[in-house]
Amino acid sequence: MRIVVLSQSRTGNTRKAAEMIGGSAEAAGAEVSVHPVTEIDYDALAAADLVVVGTWCGGLFFFGHHPGDGGVIDKNLPSLHGKPVAAYMTYAHYAGKVMKRYTKLLERKGVDIVATELLRRDLLPQGVDAFVDRAMDAVEQRSTT
């Protein structure tokens, strides 16, 4: 399986999570490339069986949560009609319902969301392996049906 992991990181936590996700996918036997969303390898993206896209959760402690740098992702991510995408976000304390907003942003690119995960930045790598397993399993199930 070929996987491209894209991330938009401001402080490095989301990039760190992207590297962990890539490492987990490689350990599971995938061919992986990891890039910032501003430096997409379009050939690898076109050939990918799964695209993983991550950003961070912005907002105040209990309200106003939004996909951090969502405009950067919207601007740089091309249309991916029908491409399986796993979406993740890193957060500090409380993420609220931000994943719903994030998946809507990605769905405007025509993607097929196969897995989502909120990753608490101070608890990394907790949740990474399970997220990668769910995403890869979803893609494998799609290819057998």
Give Rg in angstroms.
14 Å
Proportion of strand residues: 25-35%
Low-confidence residue ranges: none
Specify the structural class: alpha/beta
By oligomeric state, this entry counts as single chain
Q: Topology as H/E string?
A: EHEHEEHEHEH
Task: Report the sheet with the most strands, covering strand number, pairing sense and barrel closure.
Answer: 6 strands, mixed
Proportion in helices: 25-40%
**DSSP summary, beta strand count:** 6
Report the principal-axis shape. Answer: globular
Describe the structure in brief.
38% of the residues lie in helices and 28% in strands. It has helices at 13-27, 42-47, 70-76, 98-107, 128-144, and strands at residues 2-7, 31-36, 50-58, 66-67, 84-91, 112-120.
Please tell me about this protein's structure.
This protein is an alpha/beta fold. It has 5 helices and 6 strands, in the order βαβαββαβαβα. It has helices at 13-27, 42-47, 70-76, 98-107, 128-144; strands at 2-7, 31-36, 50-58, 66-67, 84-91, 112-120. Helix 1 crosses helix 5. The two termini are 16 Å apart.
